[in-house]
Specification:
Helix content: 40-55%
Number of strands: 14
Number of helices: 19
Radius of gyration: 33 Å
Shape: flat
Largest sheet: 5 strands, parallel
């Protein structure tokens, strides 16, 4: 973008000063306004990146109230616009007030055009930089951008979801309750060619068995008592889109056979109907159950499993995701504090080790509910282990010492190798990549005796 293309809005009620400023800043595309009403109109029309404005505006040029009212309106309408306020040379109080409201900078009148031009140019550059950063964030933000994780295994799951999203395969998401299976399913749908169509979810464990068939396949009018009109099922509703079958491991055996036929033939029959209805739908399923164990127990059809699990994604439990519990806890604390008007809330020193040591059987869902309750119950601006309802974990800071960590890793390695080599010092030293005297030193340091 060239400077001539940049729009600068000048809000000034003095015609002579308007002319002077237009001439001084001819490197920009200048537009003029002389009062609050015309300034707002120009702001809406031209969306300028930078505005210079005098605080003394009609109908009372000697009063700053109209100027502050305009400043507030402009910042509300265009928060990214950089507003440079022009004040009297000794009017520092109003200048500070303007900056406190969100103005980019202030300049005393009369001003040096060269110096003000430099400030305007700097404001344009900052606006451009912030706009570019916003574009980068938008380009990098995908359907899984809201999924917070630093754990390698969970990042691998995210990459896998991204790869299979565009493929025409059925995906099975396996993991404990609360690990984020539906979040991943929605992300998969959003990244697929079907993203503009419907995402239809049904929980197979939440609907009574006698109603589940009609929920899935629909029914014709008069098919049973109470069937007053033709009703489409979830499968048909998801036509052209994605059908998410949550808790598929709880699907009753009779319905497993009917679902298998649909997956094979891609047609359904509504209850009470005789017409085969073709349905084009991408199926994603999820369960916390061990489907292979259910197959062995005769509770799940093996042929259905292989139809549903063309791609299997194993989602790790929160306790197995290194560092994610605390990462998510910080994010939840900020979010719920904002939602509940609690201002700045942070985790207390005893809360972090308590979160790290808790097994989180309910995974992310349990952690989220725990933080939501803690934000409401916390006194002051700290969330303690007691607020979380967790037992305080006496964290041994010595364990976080790098020397201690290295010693513990070396001790475990020596013990394992000695066990593997049945106490053969020469062989163990070779495997460990150290000399025999060094191995003896390590054994003495760790209190390991040589087997006689």
């Amino acid at each position: 973008m060239t400077e001539k293309q940049r729009t600068l809005l000048i809000v000034e009620d003095d015609p002579a000063l308007q002319k002077q400023m237009r001439w001084a800043f001819d490197g920009f595309e200048t537009v003029l306004a002389s009062d609050r009403e015309s300034a707002i109109a120009q702001l809406r029309r031209h969306e300028p990146a930078v505005v210079t404005m005098d605080l003394g505006l009609p109908p009372s040029p000697d009063d700053v109230s109209e100027g502050f009212l305009l400043l507030a309106e402009m910042l509300a309408l265009a928060p990214d616009t950089k507003v440079i306020v022009l004040t009297g040379q000794h009017d520092r109080e109003n200048a500070v007030r303007a900056v406190g409201m969100g103005a980019y900078d202030f300049f005393g009148k009369p001003f040096e055009p060269e110096l003000l031009s430099l400030t305007i140019d700097r404001a344009f550059r900052l606006h451009d930089l912030q706009a570019e950063n916003a574009r980068l964030r938008e380009s990098q933000a995908g359907p899984l951008a809201g999924l917070l994780t630093r754990d390698p295994s969970m990042l691998k799951v995210c990459r896998m979801i991204e790869r299979v999203a565009t493929a025409t395969v059925t995906v099975a998401l396996l993991g404990e309750s609360g690990t984020g299976k539906e979040v991943l399913a929605r992300g998969l749908h959003s990244m697929s060619p079907r993203a503009k169509e419907r995402f239809v979810a049904i929980n197979c464990a939440a609907i009574p068995e006698n109603l589940l068939e009609s929920e899935l396949f629909g029914y014709e009018k008069g098919a049973f008592t109470g069937a007053a009109k033709q009703t489409l099922g979830k499968i048909e509703t998801a036509h052209k889109g994605t059908l998410f079958l949550d808790e598929i491991g709880d699907l009753p055996m009779p319905l497993q056979a009917k679902l298998l036929r649909f997956l094979q033939e891609r047609v359904i029959e509504r209850i009470g109907g005789r017409q085969e209805i073709p349905v084009d739908v991408r199926v994603v399923c999820a369960t916390h159950r061990d489907l292979k164990a259910q197959i062995q127990a005769g509770q799940f059809r093996e042929d259905l499993y292989y139809r549903l699990a063309e791609i299997v994604v194993d989602i790790p439990a929160l306790r197995d995701r290194e560092g994610d519990a605390v990462l998510l806890a910080h994010a939840f604390a900020q979010r719920f504090a904002s939602e509940n008007g609690r201002g700045s809330l942070h985790l207390a020193e005893d809360a972090i080790p308590a979160i790290e040591s808790h097994p989180w059987p309910g995974n992310v869902r349990e952690l989220e509910n725990c933080l939501k309750r803690a934000v409401i119950m916390a006194d002051g601006n700290r969330i303690t282990a007691e607020d979380l309802g967790l037992a305080s974990a006496d964290e041994d800071l010595e364990k976080l010492n790098l020397r201690h960590v290295r010693d513990e890793a070396e001790r475990k390695a020596v013990v394992r190798v000695l066990a593997r080599t049945n106490g053969n010092i020469a062989k163990a030293a070779e495997v460990l990549g150290v000399s025999r005297p060094s191995l003896y030193d390590l054994m003495n340091r760790f209190g390991l005796k040589k087997e006689s």
